[in-house]
Each structure stands twice: as structure tokens, then as C-alpha cells.
Specification:
391 residues; endopeptidase fold (from Nostoc punctiforme); seven-stranded antiparallel beta sheet; 16 helices
């Protein structure tokens, strides 16, 4: 329910928008309270080990208790929850008078919100408590948008949660074998099965990333010494978390980061598209992408601001003016889901104005536990697959 109503702000009708917020926030506070009660009730190590065991029958993966613990002890989650409480406190009298809900329904939702927030404030175990009064000035601003905070909370809570705990079907060995097929500037599309976040991201393909290659590739493109790289080069040259080279730049819930290919592509479905551009243009696109390194993820999916970026916006900003991106209207916003890259390729394929070439498509076969090479036609058809949790 939290995922369903997290984009409440794009609802045009003011009363309906307020109903979406109150219902979603009540669900969020109920979840936060229940999670905190669970963590507070089972502090000893033996119970924690037991609760971290997987339960296949109920679809509970290993380590779930630790994930819940991390969520309720995260200081940023506490701050965002308090920010939303301040927003509710400022608006609730007006909402009650406007009759956005029948009185009994509003009373019930209000009690769930206040009870949940009160419990979190009293029994929370985050390292630093967030004071409600400190957020009133922020939410009183005319330009304040609560949806960023709401979607940030949602991403922190469920962004990395799987419905079923299974290893990705594209193995590290397979990724290492196909890296020779890639070139700097390639656009990578990815999907991981069973992630709860798939339920609220549009289309079968939820993620896009940009392959930038190694430092020798940047030298070959003539951009390794470009001053625009200077502030980001040191981190790019460091080893990735898995000990391999950084060769990918992508926008994930943590923000715009460098990744290794073996980390980024460790998924269930992967496709690669190559822009039909000169090396000079590719170099310029990579320089543009590097410029956004370190920016936060854009949970509002707003393509008209560049201070925060969603994954496809990083690709859009890199290739803006070089490739055509026809933004689509979704939930009141002009945006560009990763699915639209598949559709763009399908529309232009074989036409004089074709801008992208097909490089590869690794298509999961869950029954066999493998991801197999698939055809260009199968890739185009993947645009019509359901998003859900798995193929």
C-alpha cells in the first residue's frame, strides 16, 4: 500500500491527493511501528539468528530480520519520517475541515498515524532522534514537495528487498566473458527478478546504466586529461566494492555512483544498446555523465531538474542533443522510463533515422536457472512483458 500511494503528489485533484497521502502515510507508520516492535522484542542473538533464517513457504528470504533492523535504525529514515509527520501536522486541520474522508475514516487514519509516529519517537533506536519542530520551517515553504521524502523512505525500506531470495541468473563468469563486446558509451538495460521495487517502477525494464570503460578507454577517446573529469577521477580510479575496476556509471537509490560491470550487470536480464555516434560525441557524453557523479537519486522522476537524477535521466543528460528522447507523460510528469529505450529501438530499427544498434540480450530462463543469448526480435518483444516481480 505504501508503494501504491508514494507518488500521491502527481494526483491532480487536491482532495484525492490528500487522501492518497493520508492513506499511504498511515500504512507507512503502521509498518514502521510494527517493524520497530519486532526489533525491540527480539534483541538477543539467538532469536535474531532464528528470525534471519529463510522461510521458503512464505517467501521470506534469509537475513530479513537484519534488513528490518537496518531500516528502523537508519537515522535518515527517522528524519524523513519526522518530515512527513510535520507535513501532516500542518495540513490535517484543513483536510479534516475539507472533508477529504468521512469523519470516522479520517479519525481512524489520523489515529494510525499519530499512534505510529508516537511509538517511533518514544521507542525508536536510531542513533539520533529527529525533532518535529525542526521540520516545520521546511514544510511551510511554498515550494516544498513532500513526495521526495516519501519516495526516499520507500526506497530505503524496500529498494533492496526481494520477494524470493535467489541468486541472479547472469553469473559473474558470464559478465566477464561478454565485456569484450562492450564499448564506452554503451547503454545497459537491466532487470532483477523478485525485487519488491519492480512493483512500482514502470515496465519490464526498470534500470538503465552507462558503460564508460577503463581509464585506457578514456585515454583512447582523448578525455582522460579533460579538466571536467578532475574532481571525479580519483574515485573512478579506485577499485569497486567487489575489487574490480569501475567501468559503469549509474544512478541508484544511493545516488549517481561508479560501479564495476560485474556488480551492475549481476542481474537476471541484461541488454545493451550502442548509440550511432562518433568517438568524439561518445567522449563528450561520458564527460557529461561524470559531471553528475555524486548527485542524489531523483525519487520524484522529474526530468526538468538536474540536481537529482533518476537512472534514465543520467543517460538522457549524457546524450541530450545527440539522440532523440521523446519524453512520455506518466502520473503527471514528463519522464523517460528505461522501457522507452526498448521502444525507441523497436520503432527506429531498419529506418534511416535509426540511432541505436543492438549489441546483446541475455534473457533469463528461471526454470533452467540460466540466462541465455536472445535475439534482437526477442529484445524488442520484451517491451510488452509484464513488470510484476518475475518473467
Amino acid at each position: 500500500m505504501v508503494a501504491t500511494y508514494v507518488s500521491f503528489e502527481v494526483v491532480r485533484d487536491e482532495s484525492a491527493r490528500a487522501r492518497c497521502f493520508t492513506l499511504g502515510y498511515a500504512a507507512a507508520m503502521t509498518t514502521f511501528k510494527a517493524s520497530l516492535q519486532l526489533v525491540n522484542a527480539y534483541r538477543d542473538e539467538v532469536a535474531r539468528l532464528k528470525l534471519n533464517e529463510p522461510e521458503r513457504e512464505w517467501g521470506i528470504p534469509a537475513g530479513m530480520f537484519d534488513r528490518i533492523y537496518q531500516g528502523v535504525t537508519n537515522e535518515r529514515n527517522m528524519e524523513l519520517t519526522t518530515e512527513m509527520a510535520a507535513y501532516f501536522e500542518l495540513e490535517r486541520t484543513g483536510w479534516r475541515e475539507a472533508g477529504i474522508w468521512p469523519r470516522e475514516d479520517f479519525d481512524w487514519l489520523e489515529s494510525r498515524i499519530l499512534d505510529g509516529f508516537g511509538y517511533v519517537q518514544e521507542h525508536g533506536i536510531a542513533g539520533r532522534k529527529a525533532r518535529l519542530d525542526l521540520f516545520f520551517d521546511r514544510v511551510r515553504q511554498s515550494a516544498y514537495t513532500p513526495m521526495y521524502a516519501a519516495q526516499s523512505i520507500l526506497a530505503e525500506w524496500i529498494g533492496d528487498v526481494r520477494i524470493a531470495e535467489r541468486p541472479p541468473l547472469i553469473t559473474i563468469e558470464r559478465i566477464e566473458a561478454i565485456e569484450s563486446q562492450l564499448k564506452p558509451g554503451d547503454i545497459i538495460l537491466e532487470r532483477r527478478n523478485w525485487f519488491l521495487s519492480n512493483a512500482f517502477l514502470p515496465g519490464f525494464w526498470p534500470h538503465a546504466a552507462l558503460y564508460v570503460g577503463r581509464i585506457e578507454d578514456l585515454r583512447r577517446l582523448g578525455i582522460a586529461d579533460d579538466p571536467r573529469l578532475e574532481t571525479h577521477l580519483e574515485e573512478y580510479l579506485e577499485s569497486a566494492s567487489d575489487g574490480r575496476d569501475h567501468t559503469v556509471i549509474e544512478s541508484v537509490s544511493e545516488g549517481v555512483i561508479f560501479s564495476s560491470l560485474t556488480h551492475s550487470m549481476h542481474a537476471d536480464y541484461v541488454a545493451v544498446l550502442r548509440p550511432r555516434l562518433s568517438e568524439q560525441e561518445i567522449g563528450e557524453a561520458i564527460l557529461r555523465a561524470f559531471r553528475h557523479h555524486g548527485k542524489p537519486y531523483d525519487f520524484e522522476f522529474d526530468f526538468f531538474t538536474a540536481d537529482k537524477l533518476v537512472c534514465t535521466e543520467l543517460v538522457y543528460r549524457a546524450y541530450e542533443g545527440m539522440l532523440r528522447f521523446d519524453l512520455v507523460r506518466m502520473m503527471g510528469r514528463d519522464t523517460y522510463p528505461a522501457l522507452e529505450l526498448v521502444r525507441k529501438f523497436g520503432r527506429e530499427r531498419g529506418q534511416p533515422d535509426q540511432e541505436l544498434d543492438f549489441v546483446l540480450f541475455l534473457d533469463a530462463e528461471p526454470a533452467s536457472g540460466r540466462a541465455n543469448d536472445a535475439t534482437e526480435d526477442e529484445f524488442v518483444a520484451s517491451a510488452d512483458r509484464p513488470s510484476a516481480f518475475s518473467h
